[in-house]
Design brief:
With 124 residues, the chain is mostly helical. It starts with a helix and ends with a helix. Bound molecules: zinc ion. Zinc ion (ZN) binds next to helix 2.
């Protein structure tokens, strides 16, 4: 149990540090690491624009975040659902089971792949 608590604490600390970094520094105008996939291929991966989108989300500029990475913004409710399903698994075991259903996971993966293809066709 202590190991699990230490892991969660480490994740929370890292998340808070990243929130501070992305809140204070704008990746659009600051030197941030570039996507290696984009650098190598010239194609945008599903995560391209995420750093800039996170910065905009932290400043509540939802529309601008959507322009940088629409998939990230649209997946936030899914992420919240997954976190809640995990945190409430004792009270709502069926919700937890649904969130770890392979069909659900494959559906998310399919959406990511469709996003990957569409954004490179239309230049999003
Ligand atoms: Zn990328």
């Amino acid at each position: 149990m202590n190991r699990k608590r230490a892991t969660v604490t480490a994740i929370v600390i890292v998340a808070l540090i990243l929130i501070v970094i992305y809140g204070l520094l704008d990746p659009a105008s600051t030197r941030f690491p570039r996507c290696p996939f984009f650098q190598l291929t010239g194609f945008k991966c599903p995560g391209c624009g995420s750093q800039r989108a996170i910065h905009q989300l932290l400043h509540l500029n939802i529309a601008q975040a959507f322009r940088y990475n629409a998939c990230l913004v649209l997946f936030l409710p899914v992420l919240i659902f997954l976190i809640l399903a995990d945190r409430l698994k004792v009270r709502y075991p069926r919700l937890y089971a649904a969130s770890y259903n392979p069909a659900f996971s494959w559906s998310l993966f399919a959406v990511l792949m469709i996003w990957f293809i569409i954004r490179n066709i239309f230049g999003w």
